[in-house]
Design brief:
six-stranded parallel beta sheet; 11 strands; alpha/beta; globular
């Protein structure tokens, strides 16, 4: 059954910001739905199938809410809002895309998907969070942003960055330079995120004071990490023993975020990944949460999402073939 629905855009909302320059946002919405959309002045008329027309209205209402929160709409955010509404997600685009985690260098860092919103909520509400998912889902970047915010808000007194240096066999003593120089190549994604969020001089000062500490996983043994925001990246390359060692370093007023991708394990053949088994071990413990991100949460170039999905299908086909 066809229906015609009308939306009155509030006077406080600029229609150009809603529909985009040269109607860029409007065209994205039109391409996503079969309904007819007519914009005249501050009135939008949607004509089409009942259920779909209501979804189109929901998209516009969510975008208007985002604009009311001060969010600048982009083609990417409009596309993600459309995808959320079409998928009947439990979370509203205005709740996901309208939350600001950190403002740095005049730019707001926000979740871009429902999965990322769940991830940030988990980091806020728990002591230990595992962010598991493919490349490009923002699991490392958002963990660093959450750490910078916690440091800024004086919730912690330092940030500790670590990861297993599998490529060097953890024998970093044979590499030239101090600890930071030895582990630098392995922590570059974390550094890249920090450089985006902190001025170079500020970052250098924090490193010099030990407020931001870079340490290979092997150097964590025997320590108690109090008032710290600990981030372990590439956790799929830990052994179960290394994972246990890191998690038992957590001290008072500390928080840990462990990130990894179980499809990218670089451990020697036959070696079990600590990230693969840890969910079975820690499941049900209050204050520990596992957040699984997927291809929909990829926020890099759109082709990356398609690549992740293609590899997922390929891996599944191989598993099915081996089970025959």
């Amino acid at each position: 059954m066809s229906s015609q629905l009308k939306i009155l855009v509030p006077e406080t909302t600029h229609v150009v910001e809603l529909v985009g320059e040269r109607d860029e946002h409007l065209k994205l919405i039109e391409d996503a739905f079969a309904s007819d959309i007519l914009v005249r002045g501050n009135e939008i008329t949607v004509t089409g199938d009942d259920e779909e027309a209501q979804k189109v209205v929901s998209v516009f209402q969510e975008l208007i809410t985002l604009l009311g929160k001060g969010t600048v709409l982009t083609a990417d955010s409009v596309g993600r809002a459309v995808a959320m509404v079409k998928s009947d997600s439990d979370q509203k685009p205005s709740d996901v895309l309208g939350e600001t985690l950190l403002v740095t260098r005049g730019r707001a860092i926000r979740p871009k998907t429902a999965g990322q919103k769940r991830y940030l909520d988990a980091i806020r509400d728990n002591t230990v969070v595992f962010g598991v998912g493919p490349a490009g889902t923002g699991k490392t970047y958002l963990a660093v942003a959450a750490a910078v915010r916690a440091l800024r808000d004086k919730e912690v007194t330092r940030i500790i960055l670590t990861r297993p240096a599998v490529e060097a066999g953890e024998r970093l003593g044979f590499l030239p330079g101090d600890i930071a120089q030895k582990v630098d190549p392995y922590l570059k994604p974390l550094y890249d995120a920090l450089f985006e969020m902190l001025e170079a001089e500020h970052f250098a000062r924090l490193m010099e004071r030990g407020t931001i500490e870079v340490a290979p996983l092997a150097f964590m043994r025997g320590r108690t990490l109090n008032s710290s925001f600990i981030i372990m990246d590439e956790a799929q390359n830990t052994t179960p023993e290394q994972m246990k060692m890191l998690l038992t370093r957590i001290g008072l007023q500390s928080k840990a975020v462990v990130t990894g991708d179980i499809t990218q394990i670089d451990l020697p053949e036959g070696q079990t990944s600590g990230l693969v088994v840890v969910e079975k071990i820690l499941s049900g413990i209050k204050g520990v949460e596992f957040v699984h991100l997927d291809a929909f949460d990829v926020v890099r170039h759109r082709i990356v999402q398609q690549i992740v999905e293609a590899y997922g299908r390929y891996d599944e086909s191989k598993r099915n073939a081996s089970n025959r």
